[in-house]
Amino acid sequence: MANADQGLRAEGADPSQVISLEHAERRLENLLELHSISKSFAGVRALSNVGFDLRTGEVHALIGENGAGKSTLIKIITGAHAPDGGTIAFAGKTIEKMDPNLSRSLGIAAIYQQPALFPELSVAENIALRLERGRAWRILRWKERRQNATALLARVGANISPDARVRSLTMPQQQLVEIAAAIGSNAKVLILDEPTASLSDREVENLFRVIDELRGRGVGMIYISHRLEELPRVADRVTVLRDGNRIATRCMLDVDRAELIRLMVGREMSAVFPKVQVPIGETALEVRNLSCAVAGVSDVSLSFRAGEILGLAGLVGAGRTELARTLFGLTPADEGQILLHGKPVKIDSPSRAVSLGLAYVPEDRRRHGLILEMSVAANVTLAVLRQIAHGGWLDFSRQRRIADEFISKFAIKTPSSSVPAGNLSGGNQQKVALARWLATEPRVLILDEPTQGVDVGAKAEIHRLMGQLAANGLAIIMISSELPEILGMSDRIAVMHAGRLLGMLDRAAATQERILEMALGHGPGEQVAAGSGAVMA
Amino acid sequence: MSSWSSPVSIASARGDSFVFRYQRELSVLAAYGLLLAILAAIRPGFYQVQFRLTWVSAAPILIAAVGQTLIILAREIDISIGSQFSVCGVVAGLLAGLGWPVPAVVVGTIAAGAIMGAANGVLVAALKLPSIVVTLATMVILRGAMLWLTHGAAVHLPDWLQWFGASQRWGQASIIIIAIAILVAFAAGVRWLAMGRSVYAVGSDREAARLAGIRPFRVLFWVFVLMGALTGLAALLNTIQFAEVYPNSGDGLELQVIAAVVVGGTAISGGRGTLLGTLIGVALLGTIGSALVFLHIQAQWEKAIQGLIILLAVASDGLNRRSAG
């Protein structure tokens, strides 16, 4: 393959020879080449010296854990982000500065998990808006637009009316509309970001058929997926990213699943996790066959005890946050049972959850966790306003006292309790968010990505704090996408996949490989997911 | 391929049908038809003069509503049009007073509106300020400027300006014809011109529009300019009906116009609506007032009933959205 590649790229090749080669075999030449691409966001390395190439008629899979740098790499290719260093070449020509318009005009099309379509407009118009260029005064030919859309939809095997509003389509249908538009624009490079995540088996087979057809026509495709088992079926080569580095690029025939998983995780435990051994108390929270259709949580059974930290692992979209939101009453469960300290309870709203002694520190604290314009003191006491009020009037000195208590207990770095929470650093904001919920004196604490976006020092402090809280008898669920954090902090680890609990691992038995294996949907705990509630050792 | 499960095809079939897609337009049209039918049955006298007069006074509102429909389709709002309308009316009077010929008065008045629209457009599109605040500010500024300029006194209009010198009957007819022509022209424009569709695209999803090669802020700017120009025309067609023009002639117009657009089915969240719906909305809200008089219902109920219609319209949107999931 590499030889054919070299030969074709030679300058001044005889045109007739090129044509004959084209007829003989699928032409393989470098369509897209990225050399030593680096990119940092606010001092955090997202990509360092990453190389990547894509040939015509090739499906090149891009895999890696959450945060490995896949999205950043894609955004650099589509011109949404400018790299800090490195070069991009398209069809042998170096691109000085990639931007979204240039990338589109080169024929690079990206299809994201969340389709970027106009919900109020018809399918035909959505496709036309991608394809048509021209003056603002030009007159539109609706008949042509409709015929064109019908033809393109037929090619992707989609039974969708061109007059349907996109709003009324399902997610897989919208995805097919996007692919139809990409085909219509004669895309040379097609980026598919987890295209099969929301598809049924039959829809996946249809998608693969479309991919095969595009491959036959020389379209190069970058295929991002967490479903490793589908890669041999669809991909020619695979590149593994980890922590912003390219770990390997292999021919798909030369690697197996185990090898890919090993390449994805092979990371040393960089941070030190001060896991404190604390006496484990009684069962604090038990969940039996919990389901919530809206949130996509199905049939989850688990239990954990006071003093225990339960790590909740899984890929983004596996249903971890959704489970937390269901437990907290944001999306109340429609089936199953929740037992708090042995007593069955019904949690149908967050206020009910709070009064039962649950606390939830959400993932995106800028959006859900903190009110950045309000003072630290106001933020800390927001969940306990009733306790600091007399006849509806807030007792500000009491508010300050509570805030000061947490500021010293949690070592929150702030000039005073009256500065806006938004002025604090990420780690200290996270501590304020924690303090807010601990002020309610909960017995069960749910932490969603507690150290996301905080620096190493603050991270260690949050970990120390968690240990201290567990020692005080709090039962903690910690959702984290960082495997070392999960391994370092948890007493037990629950792994989720596609809204189900795939298995439970003990601290001693857990390794990054085992967790990832399960997170990818191949847990040894299938019987657990089936609802037996057994704990895997 | 028949891999799509049946609920999906049902949903899209429902979304595609004519009745489903235009249910708002059709239900408002039904309400208007009902109102006309009631009047025909018990007060046929309504159709002798009042019906025509209703449309004469609704014509300027319709023209302004065409512009406002574009604005709301693009997911913006212009609440300064009442003040713009007042300014344009006074401008028309002053230009006529200076002895300008009719065509120059027409052009000057429309240009005055377009300039005010362009000011809003620059603030919204170039500075990316929220239109509700920008146009609130320009509304107040223009109103204040009018007071300062005219001291609140009416501007007398030369005789030849009334009905542009034609007979009252012809003048009234031409006002209605111009308004309908504007509506038809714009309805065709948003259907068959690329720039018309880009208004829908920008209102539906600004980021997706940008990715589709549309320049959203350019579209917004021109939509505001059009809004101003149409307000100028509306003010002109209002002014020529009278012997003098008051500097507060447009007060409250913005609410009438926005109400008609919303009742006509244009979503305040942008991207969805038709100019035909706006026409029906203007017709219904514009007829209610005089219909009440003819039906011997006290006139003070007019506002309450209009408000009720707006609430009904918006509530039906909310219910629809919920049932559609």
Features:
heterodimer; A: 537 residues; alpha/beta; Rossmann fold; 3 domains; six-stranded mixed sheet; 36% helix; disordered C terminus; B: 325 residues; mainly alpha; ABC transporter involved in vitamin B12 uptake, BtuC; two-stranded antiparallel ribbon; 14 helices; globular; disordered N terminus
Please explain how this structure is put together.
- The complex is a heterodimer of chains A (about 525) and B (about 325).
- Chain A is an alpha/beta fold.
- Chain A folds into three domains: about 60-80 and about 100-265, P-loop containing nucleotide triphosphate hydrolases (Rossmann fold, 3-Layer(aba) Sandwich), CATH 3.40.50.300; about 285-355 and about 440-535, P-loop containing nucleotide triphosphate hydrolases (Rossmann fold), CATH 3.40.50; about 370-440, no CATH class.
- Chain A has 20 helices and 22 strands.
- In chain A, the strands form five sheets. Chain A has a six-stranded mixed β-sheet with strand order 6-7-8-3-9-10, with helices on both faces. Chain A has a six-stranded mixed β-sheet with strand order 16-19-20-13-21-22, with helices on both faces. A four-stranded antiparallel β-sheet of chain A has the order 2-1-4-5, with helices on one face.
- In chain A, helix 5 crosses helix 6, helix 6 (about 140-155) packs across helix 7 (about 170-185) and helix 16 packs parallel to helix 17.
- Mean pLDDT of chain A is about 85; it is low at about 1-25 and about 525-535.
- Chain B is mostly helical.
- Chain B has one domain (about 20-315): Orthogonal Bundle (ABC transporter involved in vitamin B12 uptake, BtuC), CATH 1.10.3470.
- A two-stranded antiparallel ribbon of chain B has the order 1-2.
- In chain B, helix 4 (about 50-75) packs antiparallel against helix 11, helix 6 (about 100-125) packs antiparallel against helix 11 (about 215-240) and helix 9 packs across helix 11 (about 215-240).
- Chain B is globular, with a radius of gyration of 21 Å.
- Chain B starts with 5 loop residues before the first helix and ends with a helix.
